[in-house]
Amino acid sequence: MKRIDASREGIVALSWSQDGRWVAYVRGEELVCLTDVASGEIREIGFGASPSITPSNSVVMERKNEIVEVTAGGVRTVVGTADLVKGTPKRAPVLAPNGTSFLFAVNNVYDKGSQTKNAYAHRHFLGLGDLRGGRLTITGEQWYGGTATWFPDGKRFAHYEFDSTGGARVHVVGASGAHEGTAFGLYPSPSPDGKRLACRPRNGGSIVVYSTRDDKWDKDSLETAVLRVPTSDGRLSANSPEWLDNRYVLVDEGGSVWRIDTRKDDPEELKKLPPPTVRGARTMALSPSRDVVAIETPIEDGFELRVGPVR
After folding, report:
1. Is the four-CA dihedral 265, 298, 1, 307 of positive or negative sign?
2. Where does 152-276 sit in CATH, by number?
3. Looking only at Cα atoms, what is the longest distance across the chain?
4. Alpha-carbon distance 105 to 127, whole Å?
5. Alpha helix locations (H) across 71-179?
6. Helical H segments across 132-229, by residue range
7. Contacts of 98 (CB under 8 A, 6+ apart)
8. pTM of this prediction?
9. What single-letter DSSP state applies at residue 221?
10. In angstroms, rounded to a whole number, what is the distance separating the alpha carbons of residues 107 and 35?
């Protein structure tokens, strides 16, 4: 695999451009970078977090509690701390497949219902916006720092939460913010055809694949399959499963990368791929063509970003 970049502190939050040319990431504590995979050119975008690349190669990211878009011409604020709920941080943008809609977290929102239950009175919620402008909206979906991901058609998204009462749960939500269903798991990942959702259980050792029979995601419309993931030491990273196609899923666990055939329980270790670093952030990302993978992997004096073919 080709070495792209290196850092003593790490390279996380990997994200591909839609044309598969660029990878965005956070180097060190908070320096957002873009790299041209073919040439190796690296552009330092500036300080920030959670970068996504638009079709025009601008970068949408979190910076100083706001959501900004960085272009060749400068920086503009897309969602500010005064938007929606005044004085609240806006974080973790996730760009939709259409390249303009995006999810983001609205932190520390006062919730009267929680206060009456003697619970923590401030919650985090998911918001929806569009780079072309228009009305920002805040959904009823609470956010606990878990990964949110769009379905390929952009009509819905999935996110997870974990707490001591409900356990690990994945929620499927329409693009308008309407809740469509709940399942159990972490780190959800929709299949390319949008008909299945791969998730990780809390303790690892398997993946759970939910399949919809009628494009609905309520519990009565889903079929469930549990597939084994061999693991050497039980380590579970924050990487979501990556679909190679509608049948095969790429999973990292326990210092190894596995290809799982969702039609049978027969995992295959991909020994040519270096194991991603186990972190609470994304350290593995598959290209839109689903044949090239970017991985942060540990080296003797830090970490490096490698890019190479999956097959």
Report:
1. positive
2. 2.130.10.10
3. 57
4. 6
5. 112-116
6. none
7. 154
8. 0.92
9. G
10. 30
